[in-house]
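This is your field. Pick holes in the following sequence-structure pair:
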Amino acid sequence: MESSENDVRLSRAILEMKFMKKTKEKVEKEIDDEEGRSMYSNEITDEMRKSGNLVFVSTSIVNCKNLIDGRLSFGGKNPDIEKLMASNYTKLLEEQEQKKEKDVSDADMAKGYSTLVKTIGKKFNKDKKKKKKFAKPSTEENLI
């Protein structure tokens, strides 16, 4: 830290010159790093600094496309694999059944549907009444 305090900083006018572009970027990066360290100094522990960046990258598309990973067997060719497949299949079916649980009971759904039918029925009944109300007089009445 003592060396950073004694470092001479270049003025902005010099850093703005064309040939100082790389030096300017380097200085700005150092300033940003110092600000970041000072902001998060109380949250980042020494263990985090020592461990470095831990990034796990998976190049497989199995998870993205819900593909089956592993071995498959059909027709009794490999009974051990078929037992594993059967147990995995039953687990998958149980999970799907749990997801399919109803949010609305059948009685509530029927009640809601009946009110919907009544509402739409009223809408069409009003239109018929209006049309009858404004019917044109017949031509026979004008001739008499």
Remarks:
- Helices lie at 2-6, 12-15, 21-39, 46-51, 62-65, 79-99, 106-133, 139-143.
- DSSP finds eight helices and no strands in the chain.
- The mean pLDDT is 79.
